[in-house]
Amino acid sequence: MTLALDVAQQALQHLPKLKRFWVGLSGGIDSSVLLHLCHTTCPKHIQLKAIHVNHGLSPNADQWQRHCQSVCKKLGVELITVDVAVNEQGKGIEDAARQARWKAYEEVIGGAKGLVEHELLVLGHHADDQAETLLLNLLRGSGLRGAQGMSHFTQRQIFSVFRPMLNIEKTAIVDYARHYGLNWVDDESNQDVYFRRNFLRQEIFPTLVKQWPAYASTMGRFCQNMQALNSVVDEWLQEDLVKVLDNDKLNLDVLSQWSLHRQKQILLYWLQQSTHYAPPASQLNEFVRQINSSKEADVGRCELRFSKWALIQSKRHLELIQQTQLDVTAFHYVWDDLSKPIAVPEISAQLTSDAANDLSNSPLLIRPPKINEVVTVRSRVGGERAWPSYRGKANSLKKIYQEMGVPNWLRETTPLIFYDQELVCAVGQFVDRRFLSNETESLQFTLQPLEN
């Protein structure tokens, strides 16, 4: 046997407190070998689970799912299956399927019972996959990050990703599967050279191997060199980012002191660190041009949308928010019982009412509603007036937001609380002085993420 790989031992070098493996299992030969390796090497204190994503793109998709269920049952490994809808929406089918798969991984692992600090998703990419990825990235005109290919170990928001077979060639994986008598499924779409990865696999690499038989390991070594170089660049960018960050926002006055090329790299680094996605280069270039030509009065004029995220200008700062915060549906709810949270799904949040004895240090406590007062939670519709505690007189909500520097997008997503028809507060922004209280039965309203 040419394949001797202690997956668990390698993973523990990265995450010494590792408690759980999640294996991405398609049912193909690569993930089948990976599952067998994990099952063989995983110590008893590490829980092993598998995730199968059914894309529904093949007439054999349900058969593949049943195969994965059968394999996991024999090994005694818990399998979670997820059906996804692949929506191209202007993307290629491969990219759309990949995004749906990653979303499924995030939902399964993020929603797992007993979510632990060190969750690890293990994937079966190998050296031949790395060579394909590198060449595809270069043919797209990718920069340094694309030239580094896939990494053995990466950290995402909810979990880490580990690719233990990235230096192992396909031939060794096939030998391993045959040696242990493993069964696997074959995706018929892998033979369709319409897809670019398949074209490389079927048409290009069989010719390349005749002149460069070790092309996969050589290209893998190139990726490792690029990863080492990229880590040094990231250290420099992190130093720049610390200088330009201002309470989770980017300070445009500091950013604009550097060259356009450096600005782009800082933005790209920040976005990838924060979202694990990157906008297309053409959009990023145009966005950088716009923010360098904008003036302080152009609040919210510059905007860049990518994936599910949006990068927007707020005076002389850049803010990163989810696109759902820009396209908010109007809402209006009656809050009958303040002792219970009220959900506001339009902004993916919930409101809670906290008693003063828990928040005695807060300077902005609110009197409870009177017995006959109806409490409502609404979005802004226009024409509202308030008298914030810091002002000498009342004014329109629009003027108040302007003088407070509240960005346009936040104005639409900030819940307004009313007692009958009187505006009590804009949650997280201000309290109307007419409803301030220093009594022990006072309240404070808090906005929290909506619980699943």
UniProtKB/TrEMBL annotation:
Listed GO MF terms: ATP binding; tRNA(Ile)-lysidine synthase activity
Domain Lysidine-tRNA(Ile) synthetase C-terminal: 375-447
Compartments in which it is found: Cytoplasm
Positions annotated to bind ATP: 26-31
InterPro entries cross-referenced by the UniProt entry: Lysidine-tRNA-synth_C, Rossmann-like_a/b/a_fold, TilS/TtcA_N, tRNA_Ile_lys_synt, tRNA_Ile_lys_synt_N, tRNA_Ile_lys_synt_subst-bd
Keyword Nucleotide-binding set for record: yes
Swiss-Prot/TrEMBL catalytic activity: cytidine(34) in tRNA(Ile2) + L-lysine + ATP = lysidine(34) in tRNA(Ile2) + AMP + diphosphate + H(+)
Domain of life: Bacteria
Known EC number: 6.3.4.19
Domain notes: The N-terminal region contains the highly conserved SGGXDS motif, predicted to be a P-loop motif involved in ATP binding.
PANTHER family recorded: TRNA(ILE)-LYSIDINE SYNTHASE-RELATED (PTHR43033)
Similarity comment text for this entry: Belongs to the tRNA(Ile)-lysidine synthase family.
Function as written in the Swiss-Prot or TrEMBL entry: Ligates lysine onto the cytidine present at position 34 of the AUA codon-specific tRNA(Ile) that contains the anticodon CAU, in an ATP-dependent manner. Cytidine is converted to lysidine, thus changing the amino acid specificity of the tRNA from methionine to isoleucine.
HAMAP family named in the record: tRNA_Ile_lys_synt (MF_01161)
Full protein name: tRNA(Ile)-lysidine synthase
Native source organism of the sequence: Pleionea litopenaei
Gene label: tilS
